[in-house]
Structures are given as structure tokens and as C-alpha cells.
Amino acid sequence: MNDAPWRPAGDPPEKVAFQHKFFTSMENPYFRVSPETERPGMYFRMSENPVVLSLPGIKREFKLDDHPDGAMLDWVAAGLRFVKALMIGDAIPAELRTGEASWQVEPRHTHIAYSKLAGQLMGWITGAGFDVTDAKMLEDLANDAAFKEEVSEAFDQAAQELGLEGAAGREQAVQYVERLAAEWAYVEAVRERFAKIVKLKAKLTELEGNYRSDRMEAERVERCRALLEAGIEEWHARFQTVDADHADVLGALRDVEARIVALRQTRDDLWQRMLVWDDLLREWDFAVIKRSAECLKLIDKTYRFLAPRYMEVDEWVLASTVVEDSGGVSGVEW
After folding, report:
1. Domain boundaries defined on the chain
2. Which end of the chain is less congested by CB atoms within 10 angstroms, N or C?
3. How much is the pTM?
């Protein structure tokens, strides 16, 4: 299971709000995590120039360590693990306030989750296991009459195992599974997003073929694809661990509240890791895969994204030194 992530001490505020006039002295400031440094900062414009202030730098400059605004900056930093940006007046993400998610899943994700949990329950009863992993098949099972009948019998036996008697006990077992499915749906939603990362590999392979006659550019794409493959392997391993950690559905039904807490920790860990991919994957969604300056520029951006995550440490230190020497920093960061 995942350990609970860091969060500031005390109860979270409802909204982002500050007392110091500095925070309202510029137009439309907002907070986000820097794509370059992966650290949260405050973004605004000064004399038409983009400026980024680190949150620790703001606290230090205005002596906010023991001030309510200092605590607010800590909550903003914590909140940016779940959303891409926060502005003054925005609600602090629900993950920190209520434990619920600040993002939505589709009904199909809940159907997939329900079918998976119900199937695992049937596997426990029959001893035959349940190894259906295809998302479309799991979604279809939710409306399959034969599957529903088998699941109904499984609920009867599960209720007996849990000491829940009669029709009311069976209904309680059903509600337990439905509650767990509502939480597991977020895992399936992230898994669906992961499919886009897998599809990106196919795009890089196609692009590499387009540059077959240009050895230098082909190697440029190949290096990027190799890093992506390392990332895909890591994601596969992570989902395998998550599935194994939550495979004991009967154990989950014995203590639903504890399993929901664990599932939410899993959800938050997966979501934070996936959220940083969003902007890059969106650019690839609109990219035309062909020999072009635009594709090479996107390859370089993808490489810069992947390298610090999946390159060997010694290699990355050397590569990052070369990048720093080449300049190219946009905006001003303090």
C-alpha cells in the first residue's frame, strides 16, 4: 500500500486566500508546478515579462513562516499535486479537504471497476480465479445477463461469509462492492490514460521510420523512444502492484472503510504521476506524424520530459549540464 502523502499541519482552508497585499498587487497571478523544475511557483507578468517566484522564496522574502499566508502557500503547494493550477479564490482540491477526488470519472470506469470486483468475488467462491483484464470486456460484463446471475449468487455467499443475514445482509454486501467500485473507478480511469502513453510509443516508432534515411535524426527519435519504453515498463509494473495489493476483495469487504482509505491513497499516487503527462500527451494528440521541424521540436520536448525520470542518474547529470550550458531559459525565475 502507498504511504499517505505529505500535507500541511492543521485543517485545510476552503479556498486560496491571502492577507498580504503583495498577492493582490499584480494582475491575475496564479500558482502552478514548473514543467522545468517540477517545483510549485507563483506566476505573473511584470512589464510584459513573465515572472516566476518560488513559494519558499516568497515566504522568505516576506517573512511568512509563522504567518497565515505562509501556511496558505503550503496548502497551495500540496494542492498542486492534484490540479494543474490554482488562482486566488479557487477551492483547495477536495483530496485535501474531504478525501474525495477533485476530478471526475466516466460511467464506464465504474462499470469496469464493478465487473472486476464482482469477478474477483466469483473467483474466490469458485476457486477458478478471474483473469479478465480487457477494459472493453469488463465494461460489457456489467450488462451481461449471465454474469449478473452468477454475481448474484456470489453476493449471497459473500454475505454469509461476512455474517450478514437475510435479504438485508445481501443488499449490504452489494452496497459494499458498489462503494469499492466507485473508488476503484479512478484507478481504471488512470489506466485508460496510460493507454495514451502506450500509443505514443507507436507514434515515435512511425516517426523513427520516417527518418530512416537521416541517421542523426533517426537516432534522436530512437533515444526518445527508448526512454519512453522505460517509462511504459515502470507504469506496467506499478499497475501490477496496485492490482495485487487490492486483489483480496473479500478482505476488502470485511473492512470497507480501511480499503477505501487505501484506494484513495492509491488513486492520489497514480493521479499525481499521470497529471504531469497531460500537457505532453495533448500536444502529441494534435501532432501530424511526418518529417517536420514541429515533430523534431516535440521530440526534443519529450526527451527533456523523459530524461530526468527514466535516464540513468550519471547520464542525466551529464545531459542536464549540457542543456544548462546551452541556455534557452524563458522568463525570469527568482
Report:
1. 21-97, 110-327
2. C
3. 0.87
